[in-house]
Amino acid sequence: MKDKKQHLSSLIKEAKLGGGQDKIDKLHAKNCLTARERIEHLLDKGSFEEFDMFKQHRCRDFGMEDKQFLGDGVVVGHGTVDGRVVCVFSYDSTVFGGSLSETMAEKICKTVELAAKIGAPVVGFNDSGGARIQEGIESLAGYADIFLRNVMYSGVVPQISGMFGPCAGGAVYSPALTDFNIMVKGTGTMFITGPKVVESVTGEKISSEDLGGADVHNKRSGVAHFEASSDQDAIGQIKRLLSFLPSNNMEDAPLVETDDQADRKIPQLDALIPESPNQPYDMMDAILPILDNNDFMEVQACYAMNMIVGFGRLYGRTVGIVANQPNVMAGVIDINASVKAARFVRFCDAFNIPIVTFVDVPGFMPGTVQEFNGIIRHGAKLIYAYAEATVPKLTVITRKAYGGAYCVMSSKHMRGDINYAWPTAEISVMGPSGAIEIVFNKEIKEAPADKKAEITSKKIEEYTEKFANPYRAAGRGYIDDVILPGSTRFRLIRALEMLQTKSDKNPLKKHGNIPL
Description:
This protein is of the alpha/beta class.
């Protein structure tokens, strides 16, 4: 028995070395953690239970039968984060560059399936050069097997991907199918084809970082949701993100004790909206003081910045925040903002997270660039997401809510449960100036030159008084109440408490056909 115990210990020691100490040292020299260290930093101390430590690849071509490593190129298992079970897999770049083999795919699929069975989030640390070329079709089949499970369990358990190293070719599609992607700046990259292939095909010369680095995917493509400065920073963000989320689609997010009073008044909000309707302000100045302890985890903070999405809490309960940002492009909705918000709304709906929407929107972005690139189709995604969502939906119109953009942003007509407006709200088909130009165009055109300005000003004043306010909508019941801005936190918390027992269902169907 002693010999067997020693043999087991030596095998465990060998497995934990991955591709060897020299390769581990190279990772550390780049200020990167190993596959196992990433798991250790994520999970509660001593909670990791590893599976398939002794599994090895089966390839017998190109001399691969002589190159065997225990566990192959991925570490898998489960543990806890703040006491809650989480399943995890971590690519080991010290073993064949983390390239995917048939056996690695089996380990990852086993982990994702376990997560779905027990109702636990799954976190994947990606650091892989792509498919293991020596295995050919087996490696490609492995990717497809992983993709299938990403799709099957989408909306069942939260799936989070971390880009801690290269992620190329087929390897990028699994992270793209998951709910959130965190990229480490300087080391994490994602691209379908690398710089050498790009140059050979298109003639473009570009670095890996400029082609698919963290900045590119956080600011330009929208593929990533968070950017981190280091492995440790990325893991910290993953842990914080998990704290806002339920473990699965059958549970609610954890209720967190708070010392922030529900009835706390916020007097600075009463003076937040500028006198001029065209003067911008920062919607964050409304969101942060309303949330518990000003704590807000913004998602895709550097992408489509005219739309804000992210997680916060109201009296301990997680809420998803969606808001127009009048400080950027006047808060207008364009293609990128539509897709960003639609995906976030659908995630919240899938995981029982109430949605709070702050509205100050002049409309959808006009112009040939937007029209030719499908603003109609992409804007319809946001309509679809809000209309489909059955979670509690609370809305606060702070200033402008014009035209179709009013309808889209969780209006009463999109099954908004509680819709509030501040006294500064303007709810109408369009702004007063534009409306007057259309409605009274002939009268103004035919007026004497010295009277045009006077008539225009008078008509704008009349239109503003009649339409550009919240009271006509409130009179129709489209707004449940016009509230003082300083009381918004308390009113939202009260509404959220009332809606805890909400039950709403969509018609029975296989699935809808979202305008992709």
